[in-house]
Amino acid sequence: MSSSNPSPNCVVTGGAGFIGSNLTLALQEKFPQAKLTVIDDFRSGDFKNLAGYRGDFVAQNLAALDWREQFGDEKFDAIFHLASITDTTLHDQFVQVHDNVESFRRILNFARPTKTRIIYASSASTYGPASEASVESNGAAPANIYAFSKTIMDNIAMREAAASREWIIIGLRYFNVYGPREAHKGVPASMVYHLSRQMKAGQRPRIFKHGDQKRDFVYVKDIVEGSILALEAGESGIYNLGCGQARSFNDLVDVLNKCLGTNFEPDYIDNPHAHYQNFTEADLSKVRSALGYAPQFPLEDGVRDYMKWLYPEEK
Fold first, then answer.
1. 181-214+246-276: which CATH architecture?
2. Which residues are catalytic?
3. pTM of the prediction?
């Protein structure tokens, strides 16, 4: 498919969730004639994220959905698969792997006869603990069951792609995403969101000692842009999507202070997590050359844009 098609027919799974809703609304804006269908079971989504959405909505659990029965012989230009159990603290190994992997398998089985393009959310968590920028060729080292489920998805996606060269399947390893429409997630929402709420409430931002942990914080608008670029990809592959620069928690507090007009010192607390990613950074060389991805929002710009959206009363 090419974005020169003015009225693509696309499905977005997880389209009521954080990244999915941003992607759905961006597709609607980019392709006003598009035929869009969102599938979501609201486990980690909210209808309010889709204010202004003009497409169809299917409320179904993807791990049990019969695509053929739901859609018959309908032909789609692309399926964006962003739905998953995103709560990485859910430690039930069966539920996490069953729902994430079997949902994906059902999509692959439906798309195989028509070779429908699939663009799916993988995760930076598949790399496990890192101390330098993660490159796609690094082996998977999942440290939790969520990351393991995403690793299996990558494995079966690349097996399918290798078996039929004309079927394009793109996996996107999202790094630490923040931005509008994430508040409904509660605890799993981004640090950017939680720290800004603490500071807006007049509290010192709580971060782990001594704030030198680093993350590739990537603004959701860059993630959406990278996901839409995958519509143009000429071959299958798995790519990192991040900002490309690791920034410390202390940096983030500084940026938030500037954007919010506050002057809080961090409140350093002990880190209770035994397996904690102290460093994430996306190596973007592969995705830059393959998809032309070029993130537009370094941390300062992304946080500023987000704070304007989150606290509009202060414009």
1. Alpha-Beta Complex (3.90)
2. 146, 185
3. 0.96
Q: Domain 9-177+219-243+279-295 is classified in which CATH homologous superfamily? A: NAD(P)-binding Rossmann-like Domain (3.40.50.720)
Let me know how many helices (H) and strands (E) the chain has, helices first: 9, 13
Q: What is the pLDDT along the chain (315 residues), one digit of tens a residue?
A: 454 688 999 999 999 999 999 999 999 999 999 999 999 999 989 999 999 999 999 999 999 999 999 999 999 999 999 999 877 666 789 999 999 999 999 999 999 999 999 999 999 999 999 999 999 999 999 988 999 999 999 999 999 999 999 999 999 999 999 999 999 998 889 999 999 999 999 999 999 999 999 999 999 999 999 999 999 999 999 999 999 999 999 999 999 999 999 999 999 999 988 777 889 999 999 999 999 999 999 999 999 999 999 999 865
| Torsion from C-alpha of 246, 252, 254, 260, nearest 10 degrees | 140
Domain spans, the chain: 9-177+219-243+279-295, 181-214+246-276
Q: What is the DSSP string of 90-123?
A: ---HHHHHHHHHHHHHHHHHHHTTTT-EEEEEEE
